[in-house]
Amino acid sequence: MPPPPLAANKSPYDIERQQTIPEGAAINIYRTNTRQSTARVYDSRSMRRTSTNASRASQKAVRDPNFDVNLPYRTLTVDANLAEYTSAVSGGAIETGVGADGVPYTMVAFEPNDPDNPKNWTRLKKWWITMVVAVTCLVVALCSSVITPGIQGVVDEFNVSREVALLSITVFVVGFGVGPLAFAPLSEIYGRQVVYVSTMALAVIFVIPCAVAKNVATLMVCRAIDGIAFSAPMTLVGGTLADCWKTEERGVPMAAFSAAPFVGPALGPLIGGYLYDGKGWRWLYWIQLILAGFVWIMMTFTVPETYAPTILARRAKKLSKQTGLRYITEQDLDLRPFSERLINFLIRPIQLLFVELIVFLIAVYMSVLYGLLYMLFIAYPIVYRDGKGWSAGKTGLMFLPLAAGVVASALCATFVNNDYIRRCAKFNGNPPAEVRLIPMMVSCWLIPIGMFIFAWSSYPHVSWAGPAFAGFPVGFGFIFLYNSANNYLVDSYQHQAASALAAKTCLRSFWGAATVLFTAQMYNKLGYQWASSLLAFIALACCGIPFLFYFYGAKIRAKSKYAYGGESIEDGEKPSDGGH
């Protein structure tokens, strides 16, 4: 039974005295918990956590049926009552107790139909937020590639080599990999909105020195800062959508978001090409200022905080100030020590990357794809500008089939999700993680097919259509591969999923940043056909990765220290329940 609402004339302590539970009783979502001493609770929890860790060393982790990747598992202890963030409780009090100083407290929660709960907001409001954050993500991604047509302008003005000029792309993409290591944990502590607004403001400010740079050093330093700052929206957008939409409603909003990081880079050379032809390379930065400034204004003034822990923390602070009583959240009771949080945020991704075969190979595959995307930004100008003598603007038009492929695959996302739901029924609603790989196993072939077409139709005397339309299967495959990879990592590692995704993002960004520095040399050395064929062969080799994990993933997870294990595709067993 849910706890009764807090009466206007009763304090939380009155309720606590009425519903006393024997000391040591487990916290239940619909039961208040009497904590006779916070210090004693912490001591007992420390011992329990030690024993839990010890048992984990000897027992295999099992699947958590209530797992939600957006909950603060890395910030709170393993015994935290996360139902505070996922449940609606009449009266808005999920737990009461007494602190070490003898002062009673009430742990706040959302009430049924609570207007402060993002999942209860109107569809119009949720769709507005979805569109704003998706457009923000698109603009950020566009900023990474819009400068590619103007690289020669930087070379000419600052009298530097082409490789030095290309560093303006490299340092930006490196920032995409470094930034999430800081912004993801900061969003768990301070909320999403403050991170969005502050980082976007910083990014907008540092676009200006790029546009007016008097030397190449200024350009590189400010591009690096922009890359780090712009990485925040790319990191947080998925969480924002999950905050607002219920699981069964997320299909279309997530499809809109998943297309943005790939459509943006594809549109960058088109917009940048015509701007460079007409206005010069500096306008490639002024357009970033205009677009980024616009989305910063929209984000600042129209998108409220959506992260449940932050919303409830603000409510607790407000109630405490208004009533003089103590209202708290789980972050006040069960926050991990700073050293543990530091390990989870910075050390754990590195551990997973180098000791977990699943994380390593998936990260390598995604790095190959990400690198391929940025290599195309160099390859298309080589084929069309150098080979056919086209202008930068006209060359940018050749990226449209790539963008069309991305949009087409996003439109198919709902069908893929429905297929997954149908397959879940065969496993009593708890399928093995490897079911997530089926779209990857189908779409992985599209990348090498597209690249082979690009390779052998790129002769200067052959029609422009071949290399251009080769981008369609490549773009179509990107989203299916990325979404499947992310879902597989989340389902395999659950409470370590955020660290696994951070490891993948870091490796792919560093590789993507490096590829732009040697792509031109590779094409000059191997020729258009064999350079592109090399990329196709690498993508073809990676096609074996999803098949490897589909058939052997369960066995690999069973031997893993961090992944949960047990069920497999063949046996269809229903996994045991497990807590976080």
How would you characterize this protein structure?
With 580 residues, the chain is mostly helical. Mean pLDDT is 84; it is low at 1-59 and 573-580. Helix 6 (162-190) runs parallel beside helix 8 (216-244), helix 7 runs antiparallel to helix 8 and helix 8 packs antiparallel against helix 9 (251-279). The chain has 3 domains: 12-114, no CATH class; 122-306, Growth Hormone, Chain: A (Up-down Bundle); 345-580, MFS general substrate transporter like domains (Growth Hormone, Chain: A, Up-down Bundle), CATH 1.20.1250.20. 68% of the residues lie in helices and 2% in strands.
Brief account:
This protein is mainly α. The protein has helices at 12-18, 38-58, 83-86, 123-145, 151-158, 162-190, 192-211, 216-244, 251-279, 283-302, 308-323, 330-333, 338-355, 357-388, 392-396, 400-411, 413-424, 438-443, 446-456, 465-469, 471-493, 497-542, 544-558, and strands at 93-98, 104-108, 326-328. It contains 23 helices and 3 strands.
Which helices and strands appear, and what pairs or packs with what?
Elements: H1 12-18, H2 38-58, H3 83-86, E1 93-98, E2 104-108, H4 123-145, H5 151-158, H6 162-190, H7 192-211, H8 216-244, H9 251-279, H10 283-302, H11 308-323, E3 326-328, H12 330-333, H13 338-355, H14 357-388, H15 392-396, H16 400-411, H17 413-424, H18 438-443, H19 446-456, H20 465-469, H21 471-493, H22 497-542, H23 544-558
Parallel strand pairs: 2-3
Antiparallel strand pairs: 1-2
